[in-house]
Amino acid sequence: MIDLSATLLRASLAVAAMLAAPPLVLAQQYPTKPVRIVVPFAPGGGSDFIARFMAQRLTGALGHQVIVENKPGAGGVLGIETGIKSPPDGYTLTLIASSYTVNPSIYKLGFDPNSDITPIIQMSQGPLLVVVNPALPVKTTRDLIALAKSKPGEVNFASSGQGSVIHLATEMFANMAGVKMNHIPYKGTGPALTDTIAGQTNVFFSSTANAMPHVKSGRLRAVAVTTAKRIPALPEVPSIAESGVPGYDVTLWHGLIGPKGLPRAITDRINGEVTKALTLKETAEQLQNDGVAPAGGTPEQFAAQIRKEIASWRKVAADAGVKAE
Hints:
Elements: H1 4-20, H2 23-29, E1 35-39, H3 46-62, E2 66-70, H4 77-84, E3 92-97, H5 99-106, E4 117-126, E5 128-132, H6 141-150, E6 156-159, H7 165-177, E7 182-185, H8 189-198, E8 203-207, H9 208-217, E9 221-225, E10 252-259, H10 264-278, H11 281-289, E11 293-294, H12 299-320
Parallel strand pairs: 1-2, 1-3, 6-7, 6-8
Antiparallel strand pairs: 3-10, 4-10, 4-11, 5-8, 5-9
């Protein structure tokens, strides 16, 4: 007969010994079983791609399977809560996107977005691509501003949803450019792009990966990128900042976080392995195909970026009066 209490005691002692091990030993021992990356969005999108791309490389580096688990819902909040409320042992990581820093301005969260996580590393960075229907008499950012000023509230802009990062990025542009445009929210990037192509809406601040095929086919016209500088994938497309709205800068990104209390040795091990993957030529080439670039950096740098963006998006949301539906 199995002595269950003795078995549980041995297991508890083993876990305690691992957590009490010197940092180098702890990092060398980790992992001893599969690791999961919770993706708080549906399969098939940019976040899912980044997660699966990195999971493949971490599987080889860590010697154990790294599995992607999609948990969409509530603007990503559902999956994030699942990930950060898991045990802080390194076996549940969470992929977050730029929307993570927008959500505190829109939703009532059941966690502190700064103190209830362990930032690990920022993996990617890239712009939104401002696209318009080709029938619109707009070829530049200055054209768009002039049109919006001549027809206050009549230029329709699409977004992937009320309170999304795309919504707030467009509101930020309108505020800095001194124009008023009409918001048309959609349930996701797909339908927003479809209606912009069809002429039901005029302008859309799209993820680059989703918009580029339509720009290349001529169904949409690229006007600008939202980052401060141009990107290699679209060198001919200027930034908003150099086209009439100095200081405008919105970067989309993806990163990895763990639950609060994740041991530093494990944080550093994951950070190191992701950094190695990000420096590979094939990684840069693959990401560039989607209009983004490798990021990297320390956990502290990622934590500072998160804090900074949460504060700045709060101001944008307050100034524009944006609230959850």
